[in-house]
Amino acid sequence: MTTAQQQAITDLITKMADDELILGHRNSEWTGLGPIMEEDIAFSSMAQDKIGHAWALYRILQEQLQGQDPDQFAFMRAEADFKCCHLVEMPIGTYDFSLMRHFLFDHAEAVRYDSLQQSSFEPLQQLSRKLKGELKYHTLHADAWIIQLCRAGEESYNRLQAALETCLPLAFGIFEPAKEEQELTGANIYPGERALFERWMDNIYPVLVNASLNMPDPAGISPQFGGRYGEHTPHLRPLLQEMGEVFRLDPTANW
Amino acid sequence: MYGGGYIFDEPNRKQLREEQLHDDPEKLAAFEERIAKGEKIEPGDWMPVEYRRQLTRLIEQHAHSEVIGALPEGTWITRAPGFKRKLALIAKVQDEVGHGQLLYNAAETLGKSREAMINDLLSGKSKYSNVFNYPAMTWADVTVIGFLIDAAAIVNQVANAKGSYGPYCRALERICYEESFHLKQGHDALIELATGTPVQKAMLQDALNRWWQPIMHFFGPPDKVSQHSEKLMQWKVKMASNDEMRNQFLDAYVPKIWELGLTLPDAHLHKNPETGRWEYTDPDWDLFFKVINGGGPCNQERLQVRKWAETEGRWVRKALMKPEERKVMPVA
Amino acid sequence: MSNQSYDPRVNRLKLGSTDDPIKVEEGENWNIYEVFHQEKRGAHHEHVGCVHAPDPQLALVFAKEQFGRRKKCVNLWVVRSADILAFDLEDEDMFANNMEKTYRDASGFKVMEKINKFKGAGKQPPAKDGKEK
């Protein structure tokens, strides 16, 4: 593998992991506060899965790409070195927002891991095969909720339509292209953001139709980019401070 | 987690005692004989009014304790240090919600709906374990809760799992299995601090000092003042006295604290070699009753947070309500 | 709320006053579904508890995490509690004599005794301990 490829893979894995780490933290804020106990449990499991995926990805960085210890890298890194998209940084808001974010993000995640099952980079290929079943549940869960709530009357339908409109520019930001992308697409490591975006649209569109949600014209949406290059919303910094708070009490200690 | 050994008494006992007079003596005798033989009571069985009332109250309070118990630890999820601790903590808090779910179901088999129980929690009519009315101020608090309070809960729950009501026993069987993970992860995190740097040791000792009194309160007032009747013991609703459970807890866990070079803030705490029982300074029981009645440092916040969650989730629940559908309580 | 909480998450929520009355409506926690899990292929589905859900589809989604997140599980069933038909517990006496009806049970047939008796009859009488010499 060339140095340029190594850098490009590192960049890809870092942004995937940072997305999952931050959204896993956000979604775990609902643990104990969900709309009904059964959903609380389900949503919490998926938050755990996301943090678990992030951990697995950071371990690939550490073991295959001379990366740092995952705990140090995840919890002590400077804000500007984070590559997560803005969608995952937003506070939990109301449940309509959190559900719509979950729906849009988890379909994007599913498409990404699905494409990685054919990756020429062995560790990502193995991981994506391992996570297939988890992701299937996540999208099943998200689809069921979106469709049911949209068919359950005006208030819930309107809430989800509004959430969709809020989330879409942020969700388009998931697919912010990377500069070194062709290093990876050329080597069949992954298909590139544009291809993933199209597959994602193909997957979410039938669900939105089924739910009678109105998809705004994608051409009119300006994606919220910047996250992949270290530019973040004001919401990320306080969360990172919280995440590292205990570590910083005594950086020499094991916790 | 957490039954808490103490079933809080409600004010309306007298009225129900009168109703109990109407219990058919023959059925009562058969019911008591079944329990004496070690058989379980199932939801469709005849049962004395007072048995149903006390069990509903016990299981409901246990469920509320799980739901409220998820709050002081849930707050530490974002701050939990490192992947392993963080995932274990989310899984643990999730289990608590899961335990609440199992317990509400068990209580529902006795005829009171989950909605009614939630309303009684929110209005303050129904109680939960006092121990959750204290704040978890540092990461060390999380380890103390995870180890010692879960340990206390296990003592209580293992006892209750031998009780007479089938659905409660079945729920507790699964709960106890999951609690063993809670206890182990709590112990592991606590040992990490106890054997760590001076900063870590100091924060752990501080947490132990603050939590000791609430832990001593956990099993409820001493037997000499506790009002629980012989009847509840005979019916296998209450399985062990408060002092018995407290002694069992001290016997198993005080040595595990001392062996780590930590201290507990009671100079009198020791095991009497002659009686084999632990002796200790009585915790402040007036404070215990004050906290039950809403006067603890976090009572207000805990209920406010639950109200926030119920209010936030209401549109979701109401959107999918189907009042016309036939509904029965859980069958088992 | 006037006081800052020790809980950063709580500080992010906009909590109302504790005096606001909040009442959950009856039925707001939906209907009740019994859950059956299959631990491995070839095993029976066994009853493990129940979930509250608005319909069978979400009941399955919920059951998966509440009853399938630990230990081995390969499949789940859900059925509305209201759709379960059961005997009254008082009818337990219908089953009471099962154990006496040994003609339905392998233990009710002493084949070896008869064989041993037959074998013993043609030869010498069996020893007192039942074994042949």
TrEMBL record, chain A:
Superkingdom in the source lineage: Bacteria
One Gene Ontology CC term in the entry: cytosol
Pfam families recorded: PaaA_PaaC (PF05138)
Alphabetized InterPro entries for the sequence: Aromatic_CoA_ox/epox, Ferritin-like, Ferritin-like_SF, PaaA_PaaC, PaaC
GO terms classed as biological process: phenylacetate catabolic process
Name the record gives this protein: Phenylacetate-CoA oxygenase subunit PaaC
Annotated coiled-coil segments of the chain: none
UniProtKB/TrEMBL annotation, chain B:
GO cellular component: cytosol
Any one Gene Ontology BP term: phenylacetate catabolic process
Keyword Oxidoreductase included in the entry's annotation: yes
EC number: 1.14.13.149
Class in the EC hierarchy, top level: oxidoreductase
GO molecular function term, any single one: phenylacetyl-CoA 1,2-epoxidase activity
Keywords: Oxidoreductase
InterPro entries, A to Z: Aromatic_CoA_ox/epox (IPR052703), Ferritin-like (IPR012347), Ferritin-like_SF (IPR009078), PaaA (IPR011881), PaaA_PaaC (IPR007814)
Protein name: 1,2-phenylacetyl-CoA epoxidase subunit A
From TrEMBL, chain C:
The keyword Nucleotide-binding appears for this protein: no
EC identifiers of the protein: 1.14.13.149
Alphabetized GO MF terms: phenylacetyl-CoA 1,2-epoxidase activity
Keyword Membrane among UniProt keywords: no
Gene3D superfamilies, A to Z: Phenylacetic acid degradation B
Coiled coil (UniProt feature): none
Pfam families: PaaB
Keywords from the UniProt entry: Oxidoreductase
Superkingdom: Bacteria
Transmembrane region(s): none
The name this protein goes by in its record: 1,2-phenylacetyl-CoA epoxidase subunit B
Origin species: Chitinophaga agrisoli
UniProt lineage: Bacteria, Pseudomonadati, Bacteroidota, Chitinophagia, Chitinophagales
